[in-house]
Amino acid sequence: MIYFKQVFSTLLIVVFCAFQLSAQETMTKEQMLAKKAELEAEAAKYAGEAAALQAKLDALPGWRKGFVGTAGFGLNGNNNWFALTTPNASSNTIGLGINAFANLIQPKYFWRNLLNVTVQRTSTRPDRNISPIIALAEGLDLSSLYGYNITKNLAISAEGKYTTSILNYNSETNQYNSSFNNPGKLTMSAGVTWTPINNLVVIVHPLGYEWNFPGELISSAGAKVGATYAATIWKGIAWSSNLSAFIPYTNGAGVVDYTSGAGTIRSVDYSTAELVNYTWLNGFSMKIFNGITVALNVGLRGDNQIADSGKIGLATDNIDGISVKGLDLQSYYTLGVGYTF
After folding, report:
1. For the chain, how far is it from start to end, CA to CA, in angstroms?
2. Which of 76, 115, 289, 300 is the most exposed place for a label (fewest CB within 10 A)?
3. Looking at the structure, do residues 198 and 310 belong to the same domain, yes or no?
């Protein structure tokens, strides 16, 4: 009997403690919201401290490196969809974009390097019985900027920048061929670099020379201006932007004789203003999981010589009737899944 009473008493104590604990854990909605807000405030406090420490780490001398690679693929097709003007059309697009940087930042000097590679192939077939039309948007853009600080935000600097086509497509032979330096552009310049904030670099180089390839394209002395910006613009969304422009002082020889295997097929006379050119490259990336990102690359360019060379090279008849020197906006975009580290 005594043993039974001890067991019964212990059971009552356990039940009583369980009810007490349950009562303590049961919270009203208002109490839960208040607790949640308290925890979020605490988390925000530590996040702010971590961001402040990261800012101090970013300001330390040394190398900063980054890479974003993007691969995109798309399909589009119609089969007897007669509401369309091309009821049996189909197309596919494959794109690859690479953005990378390697910057050495020291108290007295800096060395900033940028690389951008884009290859985008579009195949369009107006009808299943017609051979596809292949179009390429591609190019390599490489720049290296060295500067020696004369104040906290101002430096004497020099830059080398090289851009080139990578591939071309021959529709007659259905082959891809290397097109390095055809067209290509090398710019060497010197002047000053201004860094008003950590993520923005502005260059103004009045001493510059731009070589255009192949040889018949016009090269000239001029001023190089540009700006580079890279930052996280929203939670998990990064933006990098590179704007580069060249303003010539003279039109050099002025006349470009665009040629083919048969010789000169069109001569174009350029003024100094018509040789002004610019390129603006933008990359956006949104983190998904463990370095996997959704990335968008967008490029805009205005360059009369490159645009006219492309128009004339693709033309099969009425070469003299082609509109040139219009400074048509050239553009590309690649949207896809990428990897960043």
Report:
1. 73
2. 289
3. yes
Domain count, the chain: 2
Residue 119 gets the label, from left (phi > 0), alpha (psi -120 to 50) or beta, of beta
Question: Counting beta carbons within 10 angstroms of the beta carbon of residue 155, is it exposed (0 to 12), middle (13 to 18) or buried (19 or more)?
Answer: buried
Q: How many CA atoms lie within 13 A of 146 on its CB side?
A: 3
pTM (global) more than 0.90: no
| pLDDT > 90? residue 86 | no
Residue 26, classed as helix, strand or coil, is coil
Both 126 and 255 in one domain: the answer is: yes
Per the DSSP assignment, residues forming a β-bridge with 303 are: none
Contact 227, 201 (CB under 8 A): yes
Name the DSSP class of 80.
S
> What phi and psi, each to the nearest 5 degrees, are found at residue 112?
-115, 130
Residues 48 and 160 in one domain: no
Residue located via tokens 């010197």: 190
**50 and 100 share one domain:** no
Q: How confident is the model at residue 158 (pLDDT cuts 50, 70, 90)?
A: very high
53: confidence class by pLDDT, cuts 50, 70, 90: confident
72 burial (CB, 10 Å; 0-12 / 13-18 / 19+) is buried
Please tell me the predicted confidence (pLDDT) of residue 171. Answer: 73
Query: Both 267 and 141 in a single domain?
Result: yes
Report which of residues 15 and 283 the model is more confident about.
Answer: 283
Give Cα separations from 241 to 140, 287, 316 (angstroms): 16, 18, 37
Pair 259, 203 in one domain: yes
Q: How confident is the model at residue 15 (pLDDT cuts 50, 70, 90)?
A: low
What separation in angstroms does the CA of 76 have from each of 121, 122, 126, 199, 341?
14, 11, 11, 39, 32
